[in-house]
Amino acid sequence: MNSKTTKYAFLVGVVYFTCMSIAHFFGIKVPLLFVYYDTPFYAYQDKIISFAVCAYIGLFLVASRDRFAALVAIIVLALTALGLSFVNFSNSLNEVLQEGQSTLPYWLQTAFIAIYTLLLIVLFMRDKKNA
Questions:
Q1: Which residues contact 73 (CB under 8 A, 6 or more apart)?
Q2: Is residue 23 exposed (0-12), middle (13-18) or buried (19+ Cβ within 10 Å)?
Q3: How many domains are there within the chain?
Q4: What is d(CA 17, CA 15) in angstroms, rounded to the nearest whole number?
């Protein structure tokens, strides 16, 4: 069973991903909700992302109550941070950036997700010790 702190940490993810889904659905390009907020995009892609993010919402809701789901959510989020890192290094991203445009904002948002992942890992491990 997750502690209250761990439960609430996962529920923060539910809120975050809900906001992300809404932002993508309506094309509200805000940093943290849109990692690549200032790159060219197609509106239909953002609608697809908004629906795909619903899987994170459901996973994190279940993870707030279930230890196995919590582990799966942590793994998925770690893979997300890893995937964003590959995108940040990719030639595909560089091709759409304007000359001199920095990837620092994308790295900061990737770091935010990685730090949130580390927080969840620490809480998950702490709960295991207290079980």
A1: 10, 13, 59, 60, 62, 63, 120
A2: buried
A3: 1
A4: 6
| 69, 62 Cβ separation under 8 angstroms | yes
| Ordered DSSP codes for 46-79 | HHHHHHHHHHHHHHHHHHTT-HHHHHHHHHHHHH
Name the residue with tokens 């995009």: 41
pTM for the full model? 0.93
**Whole-angstrom Cα distance, residue 90 to residue 75?**
22
Instruction: Determine the Cα–Cα distance for residues 13 and 65; give it in Å rounded to an integer.
Output: 13
Find the domain containing 27 and state its range: 4-130
Helix (H, G, I), strand (E, B) or coil at 28: coil
* 76 and 37 Cβ atoms separated by less than 8 Å: no
Per-residue pLDDT tens digits for 61-120? 999 999 999 999 999 999 999 999 999 999 999 999 999 899 999 999 999 999 999 999
